[in-house]
Write a structure and sequence with these properties.
heterodimer; A: 100 residues; mainly alpha; B: 0% strand
Chain lengths: 100, 89
């Protein structure tokens, strides 16, 4: 079995990759994908914790996080689809309606 | 802007360099729990007894998200509205 320490390390690497993606991309879909990478890194940490402590609570939290991620993606994609229909763009710098 | 992006990348890389040794050297890895209780039956039992209410709330949240998403991407083109009202003819 893979030691939990390696899983947590991989989770940290994935989280940082997602963070870099969120900070440096302007395309809404790519930002959404990077947020998903960060959520999956958190899931990996939950599973590693469950493995390390021998407790299923980590699995339950991972399942809850997966469901919340699914809801977030559904709403996010719907928002981007509506925005593209309205503005013909999903570049985040050009979507400034809430500023005014 | 591009410079800011590069600075952000370097800072997150620095965070990772700090984070990985902290994870690897943490004393929590010395003691490990018993993994005998980690099986599908225990997982299902835990979901349906201890975590039943959060699972139900999660179902409501997912339903709300799906309904909201389908409302957001509703089709308002006039030809489709007419087709819905009048049918194929």
């Amino acid at each position: 079995m893979i030691p939990a320490m390696y899983l947590v390390g991989l989770g940290a690497i994935l989280f940082c990759l997602g963070l870099v993606g969120v900070f440096t991309n302007k395309n809404g879909i790519i930002v959404l994908m990077c947020v998903e990478i960060m959520l999956n890194a958190v899931n990996l940490n939950f599973v590693a914790g469950a493995l390390h402590y021998g407790d299923v609570t980590g699995w339950v939290f991972a399942v809850i996080a997966i469901a919340i991620a699914a809801a977030e993606v559904a709403v996010g994609l719907a928002i981007f689809l509506a925005l593209f229909g309205d503005r013909k763009t999903i570049v985040l710098d050009e979507i400034t309606t809430l500023k005014h | 802007m591009r410079l800011l992006a590069h600075i952000g990348r370097v800072m997150v890389a620095g965070l990772l360099v700090l984070l990985l040794p902290m994870i690897a050297l943490h004393p929590m890895w010395a003691e490990s729990g018993d993994t005998a209780g980690l099986n599908n039956f225990e997982f299902a039992r835990s979901l349906l007894t201890d975590w039943a209410l959060p699972v139900v709330i999660l179902g409501v949240l997912l339903s709300m998200a799906m309904i909201g998403a389908s409302y957001l991407i509703r089709d308002e083109r006039i030809e489709n509205l007419l087709w819905e009202q009048e049918g194929e003819s």
